[in-house]
Every structure is written in C-alpha cells, then in structure tokens.
C-alpha cells in the first residue's frame, strides 16, 4: 500500500466503550498515525459548549451539534494526511449518521425536517468524498458497563446520560455493525470491550495482528 493511502481503521462503539483508550494503546507503534475525536471543538465553538447544550436540551440542540460533528469529523478525514502506512481514527461520519442521528430520529427528539436536512448533508458528502476505510473495529460494550465508565471519567457534559440513552445507542451500533442494517464501508472486527484490564490487553493484541500485519 502506498504512503498516500495508508491502511485506515475506524474505531467505533458506544459512549464509554474505550475508543480513546484503544487509540492510546497504539501510540507505542511508530508506523501508526492516530486521529482522535475532536471533542474539544464540540465543547467550545466560540464559547458555546454544543456537547453540553445537546445533553441539556436535545430537541433544540441535537441538529446543531450533529452538523458540527459532521464538519469536524470530515475535516479529520480530509486534513490528517500522513506518510505512515497505518492510520487509526476515532469514530467516523458513518457512525454519526447511522447511530446518533438515527437514534434521535427514532426516539422523536429530532424532528423529521431536521433529520432530512442532516440526511441530505450526509448524502452530499458521501457522494463526493468516500472516506478511505479498510477496517472497522467495533468496541462492543454492554450499556451498563459503559455507564460505569462514563461516571468514572466524570466529563461534566455527560453527567445526565441515562442508561436508556446508552441502550438505544447500543442497539443502533448493533444494527449497523453486527446486523448490517446500515452502511459499512469495510469489514468489521468485534472486540470484547467489557473485558477486565488483563483480558482487554489480549483483545488489543488480537487487533494488533490484523492492523499492524507486517507494517511494524
């Protein structure tokens, strides 16, 4: 594979599934470029914390947040060029559209007109820019464990997240990445992210063999 087209991996999973931790595990490999989710941008757009506003009033702010998520994630895809043979990215445009947007539309906290606007934006971007993706890693976590991790990390905006919300997101991740009900640009490797610290390393090593191949 040429330097212009690195082997690109999307890391996807529910809130609290350990995506950032997974990326940090691969920081020890020199031939791997890491692209983290731009959470800081969502927390401060000219002084507005869209992440916090969305959790406080999803019906009012979800479209604004998801529009900005779409923009910032697209920038991640377009601007993070690398001469390394492997690139690992935290989440993707597809996850935002087919898990988060679909979840809000299904539970009626996103009005149909707003949903269709976001859908049109996604279709426009997808038709003109098909993101390089060679593998999706799904960090599969049950919602109860995800909630425990969210509470432990103590991110202020996430204090009001409910188990019901995480269960809905879990079902949308399952529908897409396990059952194939929504678009998947690449094969999916499922990682048991509910494992304890000792066994999670074994899961990471399983992923290493597939991601690194003979590139490290």
What portion of residues is helical?
40-55%
Quickly count the domains: 1
Strand content bin: 5-15%
Q: What's the pLDDT, averaged over the residues?
A: 91
The total count of strands amounts to 5
Largest sheet: 5 strands, parallel
SS summary, helix count: 9
Radius of gyration (Å):
17 Å
Strand line-up in the sheet with most strands: 2-3-1-4-5
Structural class assignment: alpha/beta
Broad shape:
globular
Q: Briefly, what CATH class?
A: Alpha Beta
Q: Termini distance?
A: 14 Å
Write down the oligomeric state: single chain
Per CATH, the superfamily is P-loop containing nucleotide triphosphate hydrolases
**Could you give the order of the helices and strands?**
EHEHHHEHHEHHEH
The CATH level-2 architecture is identified as 3-Layer(aba) Sandwich
Low-confidence stretches: none
- Indicate the CATH topology: Rossmann fold
Domain Deoxynucleoside kinase: 10-210
Family: Belongs to the DCK/DGK family.
GO molecular function, one term: deoxynucleoside kinase activity
Keywords: ATP-binding, Nucleotide-binding
Describe this structure in words.
The structure is a single chain. The mean pLDDT is 91. The chain has a single domain, classed as P-loop containing nucleotide triphosphate hydrolases (Rossmann fold), CATH 3.40.50. The chain has 216 residues and is α/β, with parallel strands linked by helices. 33% of the residues are buried. The longest helix is centred in the first third of the chain and has 22 residues, at 58-79. The radius of gyration is 17 Å and the shape is globular. It has helices at 19-25, 39-43, 50-56, 58-79, 93-106, 112-128, 143-153, 163-178, 197-212; strands at 7-13, 32-35, 86-90, 135-140, 188-192. The chain is built from 9 helices and 5 strands, in the order E-H-E-H-H-H-E-H-H-E-H-H-E-H. Helix 5 runs antiparallel to helix 6 (112-128) and helix 7 packs across helix 8 (163-178). The chain has a 5-stranded parallel beta sheet with strand order 2-3-1-4-5, sandwiched between helices.
